[in-house]
Design a protein that fits this description.
By secondary structure, the protein is mostly beta strands. It has helices spanning about 10-25, 290; strands at about 35-40, 45-50, 60-65, 75-85, 105-115, 115-125, 135-145, 150-165, 175-185, 195-210, 220-230, 240-250, 260-270, 280-285, 300, 315, 320, 325-335, 340, 345-360, 370-380, 385-395, 410-415. The protein has 2 domains: about 1-55, no CATH class; about 55-415, Beta Barrel (Porin). The strands form 4 sheets. The chain has a 17-stranded antiparallel beta sheet that branches. It has a two-stranded antiparallel ribbon with strand order 1-2. Strands 14-15 form a two-stranded parallel ribbon.
Amino acid sequence: MRNIPGSNYSRSEIIRSVRELSTLGYFVPENIKPDLDADFVNKTVDIIYALDESASTDNFEFSGGFGGRQFGVILSARVNFNNFSAQNMFKREAWSPLPGGDGQKLSLGVQVTGRGYRNYNFSFTEPWFRGRPHSVGFGMSYSLYKYTETSQFEQFMSSVSYGRRLNWPDDFFTQSTILQFQMFDVFGQEGFIEPGRANSLSIRQVIERNSIFNPISPEYGSKLMISAEIAPPIGQFKEFYKFLAGFQMHIPLVEKLVFTNGLEGGYIGWFGTDQRSQFNRFYLGGTPLQQQQTFYRENVDLKGYPGGFGGSISPLVNGEHVGGTLYNKYFTEMRYPVVANEQIQLIPYLFAEAGNSYIDFAEYDPFNVKRSAGFGLRVFLPILGLVDLSYGRRFDGIPGTSVEPGKWEFLFNIGAPF
């Protein structure tokens, strides 16, 4: 809360308090309406926030789909506990069904396909470490993709993170540090990735300014993100450095109609010629649901293009898609939430997107992009989470693949895009 008893009245602090309450995920954002009870004799005002608790702070996500001949049937399940309490785990009376009340986040997920892909992941976040607005988290994941009897990709990843809120330039800024270890084990070859085991240890710094109101369907605000990641050349560890940046703005037009536009980009490079990591090159297309099978890439969402093997936008070298060392993406969206209550939210939208990845700066052209446009629908259920359905028409094809221009592509995803 930004309004402290005894402080001077401030309309901006009321607006900020409403935003902070809405981002917690415990209350229905549209129903947070402060009521002012003014006492003109004593020159005081009571501010009453009427809160409508969501049906559940936890959700279970289950999805299924078809990933083409490469993956077959895709099944994914995830359980998110958004109000977990680790300190109450050893209290029998707190298990109803799980200990809660401290606002900690615990997530468990699994995804399998009919063509040899497996992923298991776990994460935990404490958003209020030692009574201060500092977050501490850790996570682990294991991925395996076996596409023939003699060819497969395997990855183990673990990370530890620390984040804090900044007061300068303003208190919408946050800073986070992530220490990450990755181990890849490759049988076979793809692009510049060679067979064998490869390890990397990296540290990533992220600066973000987020003033978005209602992350499920932003009504106004903006988001700026800048990150730098370095994996130093230590012993036999693979080395690289990577920079990412993105900006998006949400502008209310008429009533609930909102216009969104934004752009993002990234670059990956190396300190020397030895021990270069060829993982995490940039590929565009699809959504995270299709992209998880290609976990050794840096996948970037782009509607209208299928993504994954044979459907990703990537530089072509000697007839093979090898991934870009830099990319850029532009996007716009127009949406209008037709239903918004505690049981369900329905948010139809129109979109236009464009992007490309490039082998190096010599080939970089910010106007040479693959374009798409179409429409979609987001459905939010408290117990299920956010489901995003899109149907986009691409205006450009991808050389070296069967992805042709002028075709429509249906994509399915779970999770907030903003």
